[in-house]
Amino acid sequence: xxxxxxxxxxxxxxxxxxxxxxxxxxxxxxxxxxxxxxxxxxxxxxxxxxxxxxxxxxxxxxxxxxxxxxxxxxxxxxxxxxxxxxxxxxxxxxxxxxxxxxxxxxxxxxxxxxxxxxxxxxxxxxxxxxxxxxxxxxxxxxxxxxxxxxxxxxxxxxxxxxxxxxxxxxxxxxxxxxxxxxxxxxxxxxxxxxxxxxxxxxxxxxxxxxxxxxxxxxxxxxxxxxxxxxxxxxxxxxxxxxxxxxxxxxxxxxxxxxxxxxxxxxxxxxxxxxxxxxxxxxxxxxxxxxxxxx
Amino acid sequence: xxxxxxxxxxxxxxxxxxxxxxxxxxxxxxxxxxxxxxxxxxxxxxxxxxxxxxxxxxxxxxxxxxxxxxxxxxxxxxxxxxxxxxxxxxxxxxxxxxxxxxxxxxxxxxxxxxxxxxxxxxxxxxxxxxxxxxxxxxxxxxxxxxxxxxxxxxxxxxxxxxxxxxxxxxxxxxxxxxxxxxxxxxxxxxxxxxxxxxxxxxxxxxxxxxxxxxxxxxxxxxxxxxxxxxxxxxxxxxxxxxxxxxxxxxxxxxxxxxxxxxxxxxxxxxxxxxxxxxxxxxxxxxxxxxxxxx
Lengths: 294, 294
Description:
Two copies of one chain form a homodimer.
Chain A: H1 4-22, H2 31-41, H3 48-59, H4 64-85, E1 95-96, E2 99-100, H5 102-106, H6 108-128, H7 139-148, H8 153-163, H9 170-195, H10 200-227, H11 230-233, H12 239-242, H13 248-270, H14 280-291
Antiparallel strand pairs in A: 1-2
Helix pairs in contact in A: 1-4, 2-6, 3-4, 3-9, 4-6, 4-9, 7-9, 8-9, 9-10, 10-13, 10-14, 13-14
Protein backbone atom coordinates (compact mmCIF):
# COMPACT_ATOMS: atom_id res chain seq x y z
CA UNK A 1 0.00 0.00 0.00
CA UNK A 2 1.46 3.36 -1.11
CA UNK A 3 1.73 5.91 1.71
CA UNK A 4 1.89 9.46 0.26
CA UNK A 5 2.93 11.30 3.41
CA UNK A 6 5.93 8.96 3.91
CA UNK A 7 6.85 9.31 0.24
CA UNK A 8 6.67 13.12 0.29
CA UNK A 9 8.68 13.29 3.51
CA UNK A 10 11.43 11.08 2.13
CA UNK A 11 11.66 12.96 -1.21
CA UNK A 12 11.55 16.31 0.54
CA UNK A 13 14.51 15.26 2.67
CA UNK A 14 16.41 14.09 -0.40
CA UNK A 15 15.75 17.39 -2.17
CA UNK A 16 16.57 19.57 0.81
CA UNK A 17 19.83 17.71 1.36
CA UNK A 18 20.76 18.26 -2.27
CA UNK A 19 19.84 21.94 -2.06
CA UNK A 20 21.94 22.30 1.06
CA UNK A 21 24.93 20.62 -0.60
CA UNK A 22 24.71 22.69 -3.78
CA UNK A 23 23.74 26.17 -2.57
CA UNK A 24 26.69 28.41 -1.65
CA UNK A 25 26.83 29.17 2.08
CA UNK A 26 27.13 32.49 3.89
CA UNK A 27 30.87 31.82 4.02
CA UNK A 28 30.98 32.70 0.34
CA UNK A 29 31.29 36.42 -0.30
CA UNK A 30 28.94 38.33 -0.37
CA UNK A 31 27.60 36.62 2.76
CA UNK A 32 24.38 38.61 2.91
CA UNK A 33 23.44 37.64 -0.66
CA UNK A 34 23.97 33.94 -0.04
CA UNK A 35 22.14 34.23 3.28
CA UNK A 36 19.15 35.79 1.47
CA UNK A 37 19.22 33.05 -1.18
CA UNK A 38 19.25 30.32 1.47
CA UNK A 39 16.61 32.05 3.57
CA UNK A 40 14.31 32.16 0.51
CA UNK A 41 14.94 28.53 -0.44
CA UNK A 42 14.71 27.07 3.07
CA UNK A 43 11.51 28.74 4.21
CA UNK A 44 9.57 25.47 4.11
CA UNK A 45 7.99 24.93 0.72
CA UNK A 46 6.19 21.77 -0.34
CA UNK A 47 8.92 21.04 -2.94
CA UNK A 48 6.17 19.99 -5.35
CA UNK A 49 8.09 20.74 -8.56
CA UNK A 50 11.28 18.81 -7.71
CA UNK A 51 9.26 15.91 -6.30
CA UNK A 52 7.26 15.73 -9.54
CA UNK A 53 10.52 15.81 -11.47
CA UNK A 54 11.86 12.80 -9.57
CA UNK A 55 8.53 10.97 -9.80
CA UNK A 56 8.40 11.51 -13.57
CA UNK A 57 11.87 9.96 -14.01
CA UNK A 58 10.70 7.01 -11.92
CA UNK A 59 7.44 6.60 -13.85
CA UNK A 60 9.31 6.13 -17.16
CA UNK A 61 11.62 3.58 -15.49
CA UNK A 62 14.57 5.96 -15.35
CA UNK A 63 16.88 6.65 -12.43
CA UNK A 64 15.82 9.29 -9.92
CA UNK A 65 19.47 10.31 -9.38
CA UNK A 66 19.69 11.51 -12.97
CA UNK A 67 16.84 13.92 -12.30
CA UNK A 68 18.09 15.26 -8.95
CA UNK A 69 20.19 18.22 -10.11
CA UNK A 70 17.55 19.38 -12.65
CA UNK A 71 14.95 18.92 -9.89
CA UNK A 72 16.67 21.27 -7.46
CA UNK A 73 17.33 23.72 -10.31
CA UNK A 74 13.56 23.86 -10.80
CA UNK A 75 13.07 24.50 -7.09
CA UNK A 76 15.49 27.44 -6.92
CA UNK A 77 13.91 28.84 -10.07
CA UNK A 78 10.47 28.52 -8.47
CA UNK A 79 11.84 30.26 -5.38
CA UNK A 80 13.04 33.22 -7.46
CA UNK A 81 9.52 33.67 -8.86
CA UNK A 82 8.12 33.82 -5.30
CA UNK A 83 10.76 36.30 -4.11
CA UNK A 84 10.07 38.66 -7.02
CA UNK A 85 6.26 38.19 -6.85
CA UNK A 86 6.28 39.25 -3.19
CA UNK A 87 8.08 42.56 -3.89
CA UNK A 88 6.37 45.85 -3.00
CA UNK A 89 5.90 46.80 -6.67
CA UNK A 90 4.30 43.39 -7.40
CA UNK A 91 1.99 41.62 -4.92
CA UNK A 92 3.49 43.46 -1.93
CA UNK A 93 3.34 40.50 0.45
CA UNK A 94 5.05 40.74 3.83
CA UNK A 95 4.49 37.13 4.92
CA UNK A 96 4.89 33.80 3.14
CA UNK A 97 4.66 30.36 4.76
CA UNK A 98 4.34 32.12 8.11
CA UNK A 99 7.66 33.94 7.77
CA UNK A 100 8.70 37.44 6.69
CA UNK A 101 9.20 37.55 2.92
CA UNK A 102 12.74 38.02 1.64
CA UNK A 103 12.46 41.78 1.02
CA UNK A 104 11.05 42.31 4.54
CA UNK A 105 13.91 40.32 6.03
CA UNK A 106 16.81 41.58 3.86
CA UNK A 107 15.59 44.76 2.15
CA UNK A 108 14.27 45.24 -1.34
CA UNK A 109 17.54 45.55 -3.29
CA UNK A 110 18.95 42.36 -1.77
CA UNK A 111 15.68 40.53 -2.45
CA UNK A 112 15.70 41.52 -6.12
CA UNK A 113 19.33 40.45 -6.45
CA UNK A 114 18.80 37.20 -4.52
CA UNK A 115 15.99 36.39 -6.96
CA UNK A 116 18.22 37.21 -9.93
CA UNK A 117 20.95 35.02 -8.45
CA UNK A 118 18.60 32.06 -7.89
CA UNK A 119 17.39 32.30 -11.49
CA UNK A 120 20.97 32.36 -12.74
CA UNK A 121 21.95 29.47 -10.46
CA UNK A 122 19.09 27.36 -11.84
CA UNK A 123 20.60 27.68 -15.31
CA UNK A 124 24.11 27.05 -13.99
CA UNK A 125 22.90 23.72 -12.62
CA UNK A 126 20.80 22.85 -15.66
CA UNK A 127 23.81 23.60 -17.86
CA UNK A 128 25.85 21.06 -15.89
CA UNK A 129 23.44 18.24 -16.81
CA UNK A 130 23.39 16.60 -20.18
CA UNK A 131 20.06 15.21 -21.40
CA UNK A 132 20.35 11.62 -22.72
CA UNK A 133 20.04 10.93 -26.48
CA UNK A 134 17.93 11.35 -28.56
CA UNK A 135 17.41 14.64 -26.71
CA UNK A 136 19.82 17.48 -27.35
CA UNK A 137 22.46 17.99 -24.63
CA UNK A 138 20.99 21.43 -23.93
CA UNK A 139 17.40 20.19 -23.75
CA UNK A 140 16.96 20.92 -20.01
CA UNK A 141 18.02 24.54 -20.40
CA UNK A 142 15.71 24.90 -23.38
CA UNK A 143 12.66 23.39 -21.64
CA UNK A 144 13.07 25.46 -18.50
CA UNK A 145 13.98 28.74 -20.22
CA UNK A 146 10.92 28.49 -22.41
CA UNK A 147 8.64 27.69 -19.47
CA UNK A 148 10.09 30.40 -17.23
CA UNK A 149 10.55 33.23 -19.75
CA UNK A 150 8.53 36.01 -21.36
CA UNK A 151 6.17 33.51 -23.03
CA UNK A 152 5.87 31.42 -19.85
CA UNK A 153 5.86 32.21 -16.13
CA UNK A 154 6.68 35.90 -16.63
CA UNK A 155 3.85 36.31 -19.17
CA UNK A 156 1.49 34.95 -16.52
CA UNK A 157 2.78 37.32 -13.86
CA UNK A 158 2.45 40.39 -16.13
CA UNK A 159 -1.13 39.49 -17.02
CA UNK A 160 -1.90 38.74 -13.37
CA UNK A 161 -0.73 42.22 -12.36
CA UNK A 162 -2.66 43.77 -15.27
CA UNK A 163 -5.81 41.89 -14.21
CA UNK A 164 -5.89 43.93 -10.99
CA UNK A 165 -7.07 46.90 -13.02
CA UNK A 166 -7.96 45.51 -16.47
CA UNK A 167 -10.44 43.03 -17.84
CA UNK A 168 -11.26 39.93 -15.84
CA UNK A 169 -12.48 37.37 -18.37
CA UNK A 170 -12.25 33.59 -17.93
CA UNK A 171 -9.96 33.60 -20.97
CA UNK A 172 -7.47 35.83 -19.18
CA UNK A 173 -7.75 33.74 -16.02
CA UNK A 174 -6.75 30.64 -17.98
CA UNK A 175 -3.90 32.48 -19.71
CA UNK A 176 -2.54 33.63 -16.35
CA UNK A 177 -2.45 30.23 -14.72
CA UNK A 178 -1.43 28.22 -17.76
CA UNK A 179 1.63 30.47 -17.78
CA UNK A 180 2.21 31.49 -14.19
CA UNK A 181 1.68 28.09 -12.56
CA UNK A 182 1.17 25.26 -15.06
CA UNK A 183 4.15 26.05 -17.33
CA UNK A 184 6.77 25.36 -14.67
CA UNK A 185 5.03 22.28 -13.25
CA UNK A 186 4.77 20.93 -16.80
CA UNK A 187 8.48 21.67 -17.30
CA UNK A 188 9.32 19.83 -14.06
CA UNK A 189 7.49 16.76 -15.37
CA UNK A 190 9.11 16.97 -18.79
CA UNK A 191 12.62 17.46 -17.43
CA UNK A 192 12.23 14.47 -15.10
CA UNK A 193 10.83 12.30 -17.89
CA UNK A 194 13.65 13.34 -20.24
CA UNK A 195 16.22 12.51 -17.55
CA UNK A 196 14.58 9.09 -17.26
CA UNK A 197 14.76 8.51 -21.02
CA UNK A 198 11.08 8.99 -21.91
CA UNK A 199 9.74 8.30 -25.41
CA UNK A 200 8.08 11.13 -27.35
CA UNK A 201 4.67 9.66 -26.51
CA UNK A 202 5.47 9.49 -22.81
CA UNK A 203 6.72 13.07 -22.94
CA UNK A 204 3.34 14.16 -24.31
CA UNK A 205 1.60 12.28 -21.49
CA UNK A 206 3.64 13.91 -18.71
CA UNK A 207 2.93 17.28 -20.34
CA UNK A 208 -0.82 16.67 -20.05
CA UNK A 209 -0.39 15.55 -16.45
CA UNK A 210 1.76 18.58 -15.56
CA UNK A 211 -0.48 21.10 -17.25
CA UNK A 212 -3.64 19.69 -15.68
CA UNK A 213 -2.40 19.45 -12.13
CA UNK A 214 -0.81 22.90 -12.51
CA UNK A 215 -4.23 24.42 -13.19
CA UNK A 216 -5.88 22.18 -10.57
CA UNK A 217 -3.25 23.36 -8.06
CA UNK A 218 -4.17 26.97 -8.74
CA UNK A 219 -7.91 26.31 -8.46
CA UNK A 220 -7.22 24.60 -5.11
CA UNK A 221 -5.21 27.66 -4.01
CA UNK A 222 -8.11 29.93 -4.91
CA UNK A 223 -10.54 27.64 -3.03
CA UNK A 224 -8.25 27.57 0.02
CA UNK A 225 -7.98 31.34 0.04
CA UNK A 226 -11.78 31.46 0.23
CA UNK A 227 -12.37 28.59 2.67
CA UNK A 228 -9.08 27.97 4.54
CA UNK A 229 -7.76 29.49 7.76
CA UNK A 230 -4.91 31.98 8.06
CA UNK A 231 -3.19 29.75 10.61
CA UNK A 232 -3.04 26.67 8.39
CA UNK A 233 -1.94 28.47 5.26
CA UNK A 234 0.69 30.72 6.86
CA UNK A 235 -0.76 33.68 4.96
CA UNK A 236 -3.92 35.77 5.39
CA UNK A 237 -7.06 33.89 4.26
CA UNK A 238 -9.66 35.74 2.21
CA UNK A 239 -7.09 38.16 0.80
CA UNK A 240 -8.07 37.43 -2.83
CA UNK A 241 -11.63 38.55 -2.22
CA UNK A 242 -10.42 41.58 -0.24
CA UNK A 243 -8.08 42.55 -3.10
CA UNK A 244 -10.77 41.79 -5.71
CA UNK A 245 -8.37 39.39 -7.43
CA UNK A 246 -9.38 37.53 -10.56
CA UNK A 247 -9.62 33.92 -9.32
CA UNK A 248 -11.40 30.70 -10.31
CA UNK A 249 -13.75 31.29 -7.38
CA UNK A 250 -14.59 34.82 -8.52
CA UNK A 251 -15.07 33.58 -12.11
CA UNK A 252 -16.91 30.27 -11.59
CA UNK A 253 -18.00 30.10 -7.96
CA UNK A 254 -16.99 27.48 -5.36
CA UNK A 255 -18.92 24.50 -6.68
CA UNK A 256 -18.00 24.80 -10.35
CA UNK A 257 -14.35 25.49 -9.47
CA UNK A 258 -14.21 22.31 -7.41
CA UNK A 259 -15.68 20.25 -10.25
CA UNK A 260 -13.28 21.73 -12.75
CA UNK A 261 -10.30 20.81 -10.55
CA UNK A 262 -11.59 17.26 -10.14
CA UNK A 263 -12.00 16.77 -13.88
CA UNK A 264 -8.47 18.04 -14.49
CA UNK A 265 -7.07 15.63 -11.92
CA UNK A 266 -9.01 12.69 -13.40
CA UNK A 267 -7.59 13.48 -16.84
CA UNK A 268 -4.09 13.81 -15.38
CA UNK A 269 -4.34 10.37 -13.81
CA UNK A 270 -5.72 8.87 -17.02
CA UNK A 271 -2.60 10.13 -18.85
CA UNK A 272 -0.42 7.95 -16.58
CA UNK A 273 -1.60 4.69 -18.18
CA UNK A 274 1.27 4.83 -20.69
CA UNK A 275 4.00 4.33 -18.10
CA UNK A 276 5.81 1.15 -17.20
CA UNK A 277 7.45 2.38 -13.97
CA UNK A 278 5.64 3.06 -10.68
CA UNK A 279 2.88 5.66 -11.05
CA UNK A 280 1.37 5.44 -7.55
CA UNK A 281 3.24 8.59 -6.40
CA UNK A 282 1.99 10.66 -9.37
CA UNK A 283 -1.56 9.41 -8.86
CA UNK A 284 -1.50 10.23 -5.18
CA UNK A 285 0.08 13.64 -5.76
CA UNK A 286 -2.61 14.52 -8.30
CA UNK A 287 -5.30 13.78 -5.69
CA UNK A 288 -3.35 15.56 -2.95
CA UNK A 289 -3.07 18.74 -5.04
CA UNK A 290 -6.81 19.36 -4.66
CA UNK A 291 -7.35 17.71 -1.24
CA UNK A 292 -4.64 19.55 0.75
CA UNK A 293 -5.58 22.03 3.49
CA UNK A 294 -2.65 24.44 2.97
CA UNK B 1 44.93 50.58 -42.17
CA UNK B 2 42.36 49.43 -39.58
CA UNK B 3 39.55 51.96 -39.03
CA UNK B 4 37.91 51.36 -35.63
CA UNK B 5 34.84 53.53 -36.11
CA UNK B 6 33.93 51.72 -39.36
CA UNK B 7 34.51 48.37 -37.69
CA UNK B 8 32.37 49.21 -34.67
CA UNK B 9 29.59 50.57 -36.87
CA UNK B 10 29.52 47.44 -39.01
CA UNK B 11 29.55 45.04 -36.05
CA UNK B 12 26.96 47.10 -34.20
CA UNK B 13 24.66 46.81 -37.21
CA UNK B 14 25.22 43.06 -37.42
CA UNK B 15 24.43 42.67 -33.71
CA UNK B 16 21.38 44.92 -33.76
CA UNK B 17 19.99 43.08 -36.77
CA UNK B 18 20.44 39.78 -34.96
CA UNK B 19 18.82 41.17 -31.80
CA UNK B 20 15.90 42.44 -33.85
CA UNK B 21 15.45 39.06 -35.53
CA UNK B 22 15.63 37.06 -32.31
CA UNK B 23 13.78 39.21 -29.78
CA UNK B 24 10.00 38.59 -29.64
CA UNK B 25 7.98 41.57 -30.88
CA UNK B 26 5.09 43.41 -29.26
CA UNK B 27 2.79 41.17 -31.33
CA UNK B 28 3.67 38.39 -28.90
CA UNK B 29 1.49 38.39 -25.81
CA UNK B 30 2.01 40.06 -23.35
CA UNK B 31 2.75 43.01 -25.66
CA UNK B 32 3.78 45.40 -22.90
CA UNK B 33 6.41 42.97 -21.59
CA UNK B 34 7.99 42.47 -25.00
CA UNK B 35 7.80 46.22 -25.63
CA UNK B 36 9.68 46.85 -22.37
CA UNK B 37 12.30 44.24 -23.27
CA UNK B 38 12.86 45.79 -26.70
CA UNK B 39 12.87 49.33 -25.29
CA UNK B 40 15.60 48.31 -22.86
CA UNK B 41 17.71 46.54 -25.49
CA UNK B 42 17.35 49.17 -28.24
CA UNK B 43 18.16 52.25 -26.19
CA UNK B 44 21.50 52.74 -27.94
CA UNK B 45 24.27 50.91 -26.13
CA UNK B 46 27.84 50.57 -27.38
CA UNK B 47 27.37 46.78 -27.79
CA UNK B 48 30.86 46.34 -26.37
CA UNK B 49 30.33 42.81 -25.01
CA UNK B 50 28.91 41.23 -28.17
CA UNK B 51 31.48 43.01 -30.34
CA UNK B 52 34.26 41.62 -28.14
CA UNK B 53 32.69 38.19 -28.42
CA UNK B 54 32.80 38.34 -32.24
CA UNK B 55 36.31 39.81 -32.24
CA UNK B 56 37.55 37.01 -29.96
CA UNK B 57 36.21 34.34 -32.33
CA UNK B 58 37.96 36.13 -35.17
CA UNK B 59 41.24 36.48 -33.29
CA UNK B 60 41.53 32.69 -32.81
CA UNK B 61 40.78 32.16 -36.52
CA UNK B 62 37.23 30.94 -35.89
CA UNK B 63 34.05 32.00 -37.66
CA UNK B 64 32.24 35.06 -36.38
CA UNK B 65 28.85 33.52 -37.28
CA UNK B 66 29.40 30.79 -34.69
CA UNK B 67 29.71 33.45 -32.01
CA UNK B 68 26.72 35.58 -33.06
CA UNK B 69 23.95 33.96 -31.01
CA UNK B 70 26.09 33.74 -27.84
CA UNK B 71 27.12 37.37 -28.50
CA UNK B 72 23.56 38.68 -28.50
CA UNK B 73 22.77 36.51 -25.48
CA UNK B 74 25.52 38.38 -23.64
CA UNK B 75 24.02 41.70 -24.72
CA UNK B 76 20.51 40.93 -23.45
CA UNK B 77 22.02 39.64 -20.22
CA UNK B 78 24.01 42.88 -19.88
CA UNK B 79 20.80 44.82 -20.56
CA UNK B 80 19.02 43.01 -17.71
CA UNK B 81 21.77 44.08 -15.29
CA UNK B 82 21.27 47.73 -16.33
CA UNK B 83 17.47 47.56 -15.99
CA UNK B 84 17.70 46.12 -12.48
CA UNK B 85 20.58 48.41 -11.41
CA UNK B 86 18.51 51.47 -12.35
CA UNK B 87 15.54 50.45 -10.12
CA UNK B 88 14.46 52.76 -7.29
CA UNK B 89 15.69 50.33 -4.61
CA UNK B 90 19.09 50.09 -6.31
CA UNK B 91 20.80 53.08 -7.97
CA UNK B 92 17.47 54.86 -8.54
CA UNK B 93 18.41 56.28 -11.94
CA UNK B 94 15.73 57.98 -14.06
CA UNK B 95 17.85 58.50 -17.18
CA UNK B 96 20.24 56.26 -19.11
CA UNK B 97 21.80 57.02 -22.49
CA UNK B 98 19.67 60.18 -22.60
CA UNK B 99 16.37 58.28 -22.30
CA UNK B 100 14.00 57.44 -19.46
CA UNK B 101 15.07 54.22 -17.76
CA UNK B 102 12.80 51.19 -18.17
CA UNK B 103 11.01 51.57 -14.82
CA UNK B 104 10.30 55.25 -15.53
CA UNK B 105 8.89 54.36 -18.94
CA UNK B 106 6.96 51.17 -18.05
CA UNK B 107 6.60 51.14 -14.26
CA UNK B 108 8.62 49.27 -11.68
CA UNK B 109 6.89 45.86 -11.80
CA UNK B 110 7.20 45.63 -15.58
CA UNK B 111 10.86 46.71 -15.41
CA UNK B 112 11.69 43.99 -12.89
CA UNK B 113 9.91 41.38 -14.99
CA UNK B 114 11.44 42.62 -18.26
CA UNK B 115 14.86 42.24 -16.61
CA UNK B 116 13.98 38.74 -15.43
CA UNK B 117 12.78 37.86 -18.93
CA UNK B 118 15.96 39.18 -20.59
CA UNK B 119 18.09 37.12 -18.21
CA UNK B 120 16.03 34.01 -18.97
CA UNK B 121 16.16 34.70 -22.71
CA UNK B 122 19.95 34.92 -22.58
CA UNK B 123 20.07 31.37 -21.26
CA UNK B 124 17.47 30.20 -23.77
CA UNK B 125 19.75 31.38 -26.56
CA UNK B 126 22.94 30.09 -24.95
CA UNK B 127 21.25 26.72 -24.50
CA UNK B 128 20.55 26.59 -28.23
CA UNK B 129 24.27 26.78 -29.06
CA UNK B 130 26.61 23.88 -28.70
CA UNK B 131 30.25 24.63 -27.90
CA UNK B 132 32.70 22.78 -30.19
CA UNK B 133 34.80 19.88 -28.81
CA UNK B 134 36.86 19.57 -26.64
CA UNK B 135 34.56 21.94 -24.75
CA UNK B 136 31.42 20.51 -23.16
CA UNK B 137 28.19 21.18 -25.10
CA UNK B 138 26.91 23.24 -22.16
CA UNK B 139 30.10 25.28 -21.80
CA UNK B 140 28.50 28.59 -22.86
CA UNK B 141 25.76 28.33 -20.25
CA UNK B 142 28.34 27.43 -17.63
CA UNK B 143 30.69 30.34 -18.46
CA UNK B 144 27.94 32.92 -18.50
CA UNK B 145 26.03 31.64 -15.46
CA UNK B 146 29.20 31.68 -13.40
CA UNK B 147 30.11 35.20 -14.54
CA UNK B 148 26.60 36.60 -14.05
CA UNK B 149 25.59 34.86 -10.82
CA UNK B 150 26.00 35.29 -7.07
CA UNK B 151 29.80 34.92 -7.29
CA UNK B 152 29.99 37.22 -10.33
CA UNK B 153 28.07 40.29 -11.50
CA UNK B 154 25.50 40.08 -8.69
CA UNK B 155 28.23 39.83 -6.04
CA UNK B 156 29.66 43.06 -7.44
CA UNK B 157 26.30 44.82 -7.38
CA UNK B 158 25.60 43.80 -3.75
CA UNK B 159 29.01 45.06 -2.62
CA UNK B 160 28.55 48.22 -4.65
CA UNK B 161 25.27 48.97 -2.86
CA UNK B 162 26.86 48.10 0.50
CA UNK B 163 29.76 50.45 -0.23
CA UNK B 164 27.34 53.39 -0.11
CA UNK B 165 27.19 53.03 3.64
CA UNK B 166 29.99 50.59 4.57
CA UNK B 167 33.76 50.54 4.25
CA UNK B 168 35.38 52.05 1.18
CA UNK B 169 38.74 50.32 0.85
CA UNK B 170 40.65 49.83 -2.43
CA UNK B 171 40.25 46.09 -1.85
CA UNK B 172 36.46 46.41 -1.95
CA UNK B 173 36.66 48.71 -5.00
CA UNK B 174 38.57 46.00 -6.88
CA UNK B 175 36.16 43.30 -5.73
CA UNK B 176 33.20 45.34 -6.98
CA UNK B 177 34.53 45.95 -10.46
CA UNK B 178 36.18 42.58 -10.99
CA UNK B 179 32.71 41.16 -10.40
CA UNK B 180 30.28 43.84 -11.56
CA UNK B 181 32.04 44.80 -14.79
CA UNK B 182 35.06 42.62 -15.62
CA UNK B 183 33.39 39.22 -15.08
CA UNK B 184 30.92 39.64 -17.94
CA UNK B 185 33.42 41.22 -20.33
CA UNK B 186 35.78 38.34 -19.59
CA UNK B 187 32.93 35.88 -20.23
CA UNK B 188 32.17 37.60 -23.56
CA UNK B 189 35.78 37.10 -24.63
CA UNK B 190 35.88 33.50 -23.46
CA UNK B 191 32.59 32.57 -25.11
CA UNK B 192 33.71 34.09 -28.42
CA UNK B 193 37.07 32.34 -28.22
CA UNK B 194 35.40 29.00 -27.39
CA UNK B 195 33.03 29.43 -30.35
CA UNK B 196 36.11 30.02 -32.51
CA UNK B 197 37.80 26.85 -31.24
CA UNK B 198 40.46 28.43 -28.99
CA UNK B 199 43.18 26.35 -27.32
CA UNK B 200 43.43 26.33 -23.52
CA UNK B 201 46.37 28.72 -23.74
CA UNK B 202 44.44 31.12 -25.96
CA UNK B 203 41.49 30.95 -23.58
CA UNK B 204 43.76 32.08 -20.74
CA UNK B 205 44.99 34.96 -22.87
CA UNK B 206 41.50 36.24 -23.72
CA UNK B 207 40.63 35.98 -20.02
CA UNK B 208 43.51 38.33 -19.17
CA UNK B 209 42.46 40.70 -21.94
CA UNK B 210 38.80 40.68 -20.84
CA UNK B 211 39.54 41.13 -17.18
CA UNK B 212 42.00 43.98 -17.78
CA UNK B 213 39.87 45.98 -20.16
CA UNK B 214 36.86 45.37 -17.90
CA UNK B 215 38.61 47.14 -15.04
CA UNK B 216 40.06 49.77 -17.40
CA UNK B 217 36.53 50.38 -18.71
CA UNK B 218 35.29 51.05 -15.19
CA UNK B 219 38.19 53.36 -14.38
CA UNK B 220 37.42 55.27 -17.58
CA UNK B 221 33.75 55.49 -16.51
CA UNK B 222 34.78 56.94 -13.17
CA UNK B 223 37.11 59.42 -14.90
CA UNK B 224 34.34 60.44 -17.32
CA UNK B 225 31.91 60.98 -14.49
CA UNK B 226 34.42 63.39 -12.98
CA UNK B 227 35.58 65.14 -16.16
CA UNK B 228 32.90 64.52 -18.83
CA UNK B 229 29.82 66.55 -19.72
CA UNK B 230 26.22 65.56 -19.04
CA UNK B 231 25.34 66.14 -22.68
CA UNK B 232 27.94 63.76 -24.09
CA UNK B 233 27.32 60.98 -21.62
CA UNK B 234 23.51 61.09 -21.65
CA UNK B 235 23.52 60.98 -17.84
CA UNK B 236 24.32 63.56 -15.17
CA UNK B 237 28.08 64.20 -14.86
CA UNK B 238 29.61 64.47 -11.39
CA UNK B 239 26.92 62.25 -9.85
CA UNK B 240 29.46 59.86 -8.28
CA UNK B 241 31.05 62.66 -6.29
CA UNK B 242 27.61 64.02 -5.36
CA UNK B 243 26.52 60.58 -4.15
CA UNK B 244 29.89 60.00 -2.42
CA UNK B 245 30.34 56.82 -4.42
CA UNK B 246 33.39 54.63 -4.00
CA UNK B 247 35.23 55.10 -7.33
CA UNK B 248 38.77 54.80 -8.68
CA UNK B 249 38.92 58.59 -8.70
CA UNK B 250 37.84 58.81 -5.04
CA UNK B 251 40.34 56.08 -4.11
CA UNK B 252 43.39 56.98 -6.22
CA UNK B 253 42.81 60.44 -7.67
CA UNK B 254 42.64 61.40 -11.36
CA UNK B 255 46.29 60.97 -12.30
CA UNK B 256 46.91 57.60 -10.68
CA UNK B 257 43.60 56.25 -11.99
CA UNK B 258 44.58 57.22 -15.54
CA UNK B 259 47.97 55.50 -15.20
CA UNK B 260 46.37 52.37 -13.79
CA UNK B 261 43.96 52.17 -16.74
CA UNK B 262 46.82 52.59 -19.22
CA UNK B 263 48.87 49.81 -17.63
CA UNK B 264 45.88 47.47 -17.74
CA UNK B 265 45.32 48.22 -21.42
CA UNK B 266 49.00 47.67 -22.24
CA UNK B 267 48.89 44.28 -20.55
CA UNK B 268 45.67 43.40 -22.36
CA UNK B 269 47.26 44.17 -25.72
CA UNK B 270 50.40 42.19 -24.81
CA UNK B 271 48.18 39.13 -24.18
CA UNK B 272 47.06 39.22 -27.82
CA UNK B 273 50.44 38.09 -29.15
CA UNK B 274 49.33 34.44 -28.99
CA UNK B 275 46.69 34.76 -31.67
CA UNK B 276 46.94 33.82 -35.31
CA UNK B 277 43.81 35.61 -36.53
CA UNK B 278 43.35 39.38 -36.87
CA UNK B 279 43.91 41.21 -33.58
CA UNK B 280 43.73 44.80 -34.82
CA UNK B 281 40.10 45.16 -33.63
CA UNK B 282 40.90 43.95 -30.09
CA UNK B 283 43.94 46.23 -29.93
CA UNK B 284 41.97 49.24 -31.09
CA UNK B 285 39.05 48.47 -28.75
CA UNK B 286 41.43 48.23 -25.78
CA UNK B 287 42.73 51.71 -26.55
CA UNK B 288 39.22 53.04 -27.24
CA UNK B 289 37.96 51.83 -23.86
CA UNK B 290 40.06 54.45 -22.08
CA UNK B 291 40.08 57.14 -24.79
CA UNK B 292 36.31 57.43 -25.37
CA UNK B 293 34.42 60.57 -24.37
CA UNK B 294 31.13 58.86 -23.40
